[in-house]
Structures are given as structure tokens and as C-alpha cells.
Amino acid sequence: MSKTLAEKIWADHVVRSAEGEPDLVYIDLHLIHEVTSAQAFDGLRLAGRTVRRPDLTIATEDHNTPTLNIDQPIADPVSRLQVDTLRKNAAEFGVRIHSLGDAEQGIVHVVGPQLGITQPGMTIVCGDSHTSTHGAFGALAFGIGTSEVEHVLATQTLPLVRPKTMAINVDGVLPDGVTAKDVILAIIAKIGTGGGQGYVIEYRGSTIRNLSMEGRMTICNMSIEAGARAGLIAPDETTFEYVKSKPHAPQGEDWDAAVAYWKTLHTDEGAKFDTEIFLKAEELAPFVTWGTNPGQGLPLNASVPNPADIVDVEERGAAERALTYMGLEAGVPLKSIKVDTIFLGSCTNGRIEDLRAAAEIIKGKKKADSVRMLVVPGSARVRLQAEQEGLDKVFIDFGAEWRNAGCSMCLGMNPDQLAVGERSASTSNRNFEGRQGKGGRTHLVSPLVAAATAIRGTLSSPADL
Amino acid sequence: MEKFISHTGTAVPLRRSNVDTDQIIPAVYLKRVTKSGFEDGLFAAWRNDPEFVLNQPQYKDATILVAGADFGTGSSREHAVWALQNYGFKAVISSRFADIFRGNSLKGGLLTVILPQDVVEKIWGAIEVDPATPVTVDLEAKNVRLGSDIYPFELDDYTRWRLMEGLDDIGLTLKNIDEVTAYESKRPSYKPKTLPARS
Questions:
Q1: CA atoms of A126 and A107, how far apart (whole Å)
Q2: Each residue's pLDDT tens digit, A49-91
Q3: How far apart are CA A399 and CA A169, in angstroms?
Q4: What share of chain B is helix, strand, coil (3-state, %, to 5)?
Q5: What is the sign of the dihedral through the CA atoms of B24, B29, B34 and B37?
Q6: Do you find a cis peptide bond into A66, omega within 30 degrees of 0?
Q7: A364-376 burial, b for 16+ CB within 10 Å, e for fewer?
């Protein structure tokens, strides 16, 4: 029978299937960080359980780590305890960990791919909703809560109900200045923050095929912002090429066997999706969010919408609240909005290609006096690579701050936060109220728009320079 | 886990949609390494506002939260469930929950009940008119009751059984651990391992 990609991966991982029960699904890789694991390890200890497969588990420190002075003890004692707890748990249960200062430390979703432990056809979980990032490799990857973290640690499986499948087809050539980030923001604006609930999304079409692995990761990363726990893209030569050079790529005969299997990982001709959506690349433009959820976005050339024009009562109310929170007036051109902070980083846009793209725009220029710019590489490895390419100098000469790796201002858990009323153009993934700091206002943008905005001080695309 | 069979209490109306987990509990409150004490972070930003519904004395003792659509979107933080439970909530009613939040809540024994939006609005109306209205969330009968009104809801039999028995999911899986071992013996050798470390 014809199957979708997601159905194939699912079928290959079902350990047990019984009438009236969820499927028991095997997990190939479990990624761990300091914020959602402590209580899970505690649960294991209380029950006298061990980690079943430390060799399929890896930990790093990212959410609650500083991006300055990382050679010193973490200043906030509560944060320090959380990071120390992860280190102790990793040592006690025999889990590999990459700590602050290690070249492989960084945002968990940047670390997995760069180590080559993210590969096609796998099931990958992490106590973080942006685990969907790994779907770019044709893996079924999704975020889980701490109870599930404990379940995976103890059993290397999860009881799961099979999701529905959705295809999002994007075809054609992207106009200049339009990136993977703009594609996914446009998708979320189209289907809404709940549009993907209960689904695994498969991104398809020529536009997706022509994206680099890093662009594909940006797309899959934000699947959760459309409500879908997982998003994936069928692996192809681009995928194989990317994985091949990584430390944990299969070797010798294993490589050949792996590629032979990976080549079967595509949706069969005639397979049915529960829902299909179509977008034309030519119609897309640089995108920016104006509200307080990632679905409240528009092309940068548009104006702040008027809630009175929104028919749906619920949506109208949400738009009114969002404009109040964001301090915006209906009808104002988005490009006239002044920002004071630029954040370039996160698991959405903190990889080397993102840094290169932004550096290309700002090279030889100076930032607007009115803005501060934080550049936070997604991992220590990305930071080292950027320094080898001299990108750090480009950012520093521009007037930006060159920081160490981590989640940083994406979620405002460490000291990198917006102050009340501050407004950012951010390459991250969530513009929720207070996400980047209490009272902070976030506009989600691509690295290109972030760079152009840093130069002009108002929301801008490179075409405006 | 405590068994959940039926709960009767008063309910608080949260007339907002798209309440994301950053609103339920902001990241700065996620630093604790325990499962308790998160009630101070629940809806932290909104609770600064004296008008916010949870700050109103008539809803002080409510144990059921009745929220707008798409409750619990965003981050996978189970701290959101713990914060609601630590505060005293036993059940949340909404017309739609985000997938990860819903999974977390049902693992942890916070019953999330899906009712149609028009029913949610009827309940909002009733508990705004009389905040002392007793509301029953009955998992055994799979319905929500206020006064003479009865609203049935769906929940799969497996999850319902697990909640009513207060069963530990891990314990259930460990009963079938031989099947996991059998599966593992057939996993291909090309699947990556994190150990020994390569870099």
C-alpha cells in the first residue's frame, strides 16, 4: 500500500501495537538539556530505574546558560544549580554531555545535526518543542514533556497515538531576499497557530527541494508554531552530502546500507495525506510578525492590520489585544516601526549560513545608533567556524555584540532579555507576550531583515538599503 | 499519580484564546529542579493586573479553568502543567488544546477536557453570572455538569483508564520490556550511537 514518509518512519519504529492502546514507538535518539530533564532524572532515582540506552542519549547546556563570561561560574545561583544538576545527572547515569566551554556545546537542535547523530529515518525526541528541527533530515522528530523524557530515559520508547498527515507544497523560485524563514512565517500566517494540530507536516515541492539543509531546518523548526508537533522533508542528495562529512556519519558498509535505506524514505506515488496545502514561491515576500503569536504576520511591505477588518470575533479580539501589547496603531506601515534590539541567533536562525547571510549585508557598514545587536551563534562549533571566516570581526566592526552559544534572548531565560517596552527584530521563533523579557515586544524576521533593520533602525529588508 | 475519577469545584473563566505556555509560566520561572512551587509563576505577567480574573476574590478557590481555544500552544515545558496543578487546578476546559500541552497534562493527571466553543461560552456565561456555581468534571461518565446541564466529552479509553487507575505510564511499558529488547536486537548497525563520542 502507498505510504507517506511519516507513515513509513512510524511503521519502522513500532515496537508493540495492540487494539485499544497507543502504539509503543522506539526512539533512536534522545536529546537532553538542563531545563526539562532534572525532574525526569529524579523520577528515575525515586523508582530505582536506570537510563536504558545512554548510547542513544546526549546532553548539552543551552536554555539557561549565559552568553558572556562562560569561563566563570554562572552568576545566578538558581541557574547554576540547574546546570550543575544536569552535569551531576549525566555523570551518575552515564550520559554524554557537552558543557559550557566545550566545542560541541550549544543549542541542542544545532548540536545534533552538526555531530551527525541526526540522520534520516530516525525517531528523535527532546524535552523541547523545537525538536521538529531535525525533521529536515527526514527524521520523525518532536518535542516532549518531562514525564515523557523520563519515559524515554527508562524505556527508550514512548506510547504514542499516530498523528494525521499534512502536505505543504511550495513550488517555484523564491524572489531575491526571500528566505526559508519567510516561507515558514508565510505558512503559519496562512494556516494559523492551530492549523497543524494533530498533524505531522511534510514540506514538499521544488522550493523546498532547492533549500540547503540549514534552510530546511529553519522550516521544520517552526512546524510547532503552526501547531504541528513534527514537520519533515524527504531526504535527498543534499541530505546525504550534509550528513556524510559529520563525525557520527555511518562508515564503510554501514554508509552504503544507510543510504540504501534512506533512498526509500519518500512519500509513495498515490499515498494520501489527510490535508494538503499549496503555496507559490513567486508570491512570497520578506515576512514580519506584527502581533503576539507567530501566525500574526504579514509581508514587510504591508501595514499593521486593522482589527475592525477581521470578521472572526475571536481573532479580532486577539488582534486588538496584540496591538495594545505591541504598542502599534492600525494602518501604520510595518517599515516605519522603530526597533531598539536586534537578535540574530536561536535554533531557527543561529547556524553558520544565517550568520554569513547577515554578515554579507552589514559588511563595511555601521549599525544605527539607536539599536543594539546581539549575535549569538547556535553552537560553540558555529562560533568557531564563524571566527575562522572572520565573521566575528564583521559583526564587531558593525557595532554588534559577539556572544557565546546558547538559546539566549530567544526565550529570555538567561540575562539576555528585553526590558519593559523594548522592541526587537528577532530571528527566533516566538513573539509571545513577554517571551524575550517581561513587557518586551518581538517582531520575528529572517537574518536578512534583521541585518537590514540593524542598519536602518526601522524594520527593513535588504532591498531598502 | 493520584487517581482521577470525578471532580466537583468552582470554575474560573479565562476569556482568551491562544494562551501559550510562556503566558502560563514564563521562562524565568523554569529554573527550579523540583516539580513543586511553580504556582507563583502561573500567568505571572497577567497576575500583576488586579483586574485579571484569577485575582478576583470570587474566583479565588476555583479548581477548574475554562479557557479559550488553542490553550497551551508553544513550548513543551511540563512546568505549565505543574504550575496549574500547584496553584490548585484539577481540570482545564477548552475547545482546543495544543498537542504537547495536552499530552503533558494527561500524563500528569491534570484533566484537559475538550468541549465545543459554544459550550465553553455557555459555561463562561454561567460562571460569570454566579461564580459559586458548582461544576463537575466526571471522567467516569465522560461529562461536565453544571446545574441541570450535562455536556459529554470524548477521551480515548486507554487514557481514561490510566487516569482513573492513577497508573504510571513507565510501569505499564516496563511490563512489555521484552518486546523492546526484541526490537532492539533487530535495529540496523548503521543507526548512530552517541557513545563512544566522535567529534
A1: 12
A2: 999 999 999 999 999 999 999 999 999 999 999 999 999 999 9
A3: 40
A4: 40, 20, 45
A5: negative
A6: no
A7: eeebbeebbbbbb
Structure confidence at residue A314 (pLDDT): 84
The answer to whether the beta carbons of residues A111 and A98 sit under 8 Å apart is yes
Of A63, A85, A413, the CB nearest to B33: A85
Tell if the CB–CB gap between B192 and A29 is shorter than 8 Å: yes
Spatial separation of the C-alpha atoms in residues A253 and A248, rounded to whole Å: 14
Residue B2 has pLDDT above 90, yes or no: no
| A98-137 residue pLDDT tens | 999 999 999 999 999 999 999 999 999 999 999 999 999 9
Q: Do B179 and A15 count as a contact with CB atoms less than 8 A apart?
A: yes
pLDDT tens digits along B126-181 = 999 999 999 999 999 999 999 999 999 999 999 999 999 999 899 999 999 999 99
Look at residue A313 and tell me whether its pLDDT is greater than 90: no
Cβ atoms of A223 and A135 within 8 Å: the answer is yes
Rg, Å, chain A Cα set: 21
Report the C-alpha gap between A384 and B146 in whole angstroms: 62
Whether A99 has its CB under 8 Å from any CB of chain B: the answer is no
Please provide the average confidence, as pLDDT, over all residues in chain B.
Answer: 96
Which of A143, A159, A225 is closest, CB to CB, to B169? A159
Q: Give contacts of A 178-197 with B, CB under 8 A.
A: 193-194, 197
Q: Tell me the whole-structure pTM to 2 decimals.
A: 0.97
What average pLDDT does this structure show over A344-370? 98
Measuring CA to CA, which residue among A133, A264, A125 is closest to residue A201?
A: A133
Torsion of Cα atoms, A110 then A114 then A116 then A120, to 10°: 50
ipTM: 0.96
Mean pLDDT of B77-88: 98
CB-based burial label for A164 (10 Å; 0-12, 13-18, 19+) = middle
Q: For residue B126, how far is the Cα from the chain centroid?
A: 22
Residue-level pLDDT at A137: 98
A393 touches chain B (CB under 8 A): no
**CA of A114 vs chain B CAs: smallest distance (Å):** 9
* Alpha-carbon gap: B61 to the closest alpha carbon of chain A (Å): 27
Evaluated on CA atoms A60, A66, A71, A76, the torsion sign reads: negative
User: Using the beta-carbon criterion (under 8 Å), do B76 and A412 form an inter-chain contact?
Assistant: no
Q: Give the nearest chain A residue to B102 (CA atoms).
A: A145
Report the candidate in A274, A273, A314, A269 with the shortest Cα–Cα distance to residue A295.
A314
Q: Please enumerate in sequence order all residues whose Cβ is within 8 A of that of B103, keeping only pairs 6 or more positions apart, or say none.
A: A144, A145, A148
